[in-house]
Write a structure and sequence with these properties.
- The chain is α/β, with parallel strands linked by helices.
- It is 33% helix and 27% strand.
- It is built from ten helices and 13 strands.
- The strands form two sheets. A nine-stranded mixed β-sheet has the order 5-4-1-8-9-10-11-12-13, sandwiched between helices.
- Helix 1 crosses helix 8 and helix 9 packs across helix 10.
- Bound molecules: alpha-D-ribofuranose.
- The site of alpha-D-ribofuranose (RIB) has 16 residues, from strand 2, helix 1, strand 7 and helix 8.
Length: 310
Amino acid sequence: MTGVVVVIGSMNQDVVCEVAKLPGPGETVLAAGSRTNPGGKGANQAVAAAKAGGCVEFVGRVGRDSAAAALRDSLGAAGVKTAGLQEVPGVRTGRAYITVAGGENQIVVDPGANFVWACGVESAESELLGSADVVVAQLEIPRSVVTRAAELARRFVLNAAPAAQLDDELLRRCDPLVVNEYELAAISGAPTGSRAQAAQAARVLCLRGAPSVVVTLGAAGSVLARSTPDSVEITYQAAPQVDSVDSTGAGDAYVGALSAALADGADLPAAVAFATAAASLSVRSPGTHAAYPTRAQIDAALAAVPAAHN
Ligand code: RIB
């Protein structure tokens, strides 16, 4: 792939506990074990895009600490360029506390440096963003930074996670907006419990101005909604059935692979199929960066991705 993807987003040190069952409110459970992983939705998506064959630059903020050094190394090992990664003195690198039970997870993020952009998007960063084929952002960094990235981007992909309200101006720049069913419900205000409801809620966001919306539904695949001059076209993409060991960061594998494919000139349905193959491979082993597939692995898995249908 030759297209350039710039990911602007978060970088976290993930502290992961494996439990038999996710704890409920007020409940204490014992972990079978714990580990520390590189993470953050931005860093994960950058690594996923690079492993999927993209030429990737990362723009973000970390503290001046050992976690930042390990994260920088993890991006570098995947081939992600980090000239746009700045250290903020006196602030800790972001940290995420993740509980994993089988294929399910719960995540709490302490954003730390991810939210410290004293000068906003700086001029060298603006140049990177403006020259990329695809710019990708998430919502673990300040909204003002996301908005500026969207204004500068030639093509903007927003993974609206964690969920937050989006104004119509930002929605108009998302091609696509990528959300899971919970984020879609929070943003659209519509029910998303079934695939048909998710399609209807995505249609609502297209009617508000989004050129395209992708809803990721885990093992149930994804829904693609695209605005046309006189309607909204809906496509369903099923996913291959796999045994999920750890779904943490599977959405990031999807967004990264999707962005790499778009930067390489794929159309949105083809990029969705490519991303579906990548995400289905990523859940087969624990963690994030190490679990993300290479371009060759994704290409091989594409044969098992069912054809999309309306
Ligand atoms: O999407 C998974 C990621 O969410 C984790 O790596 C964690 O850091 C949080 O950002």
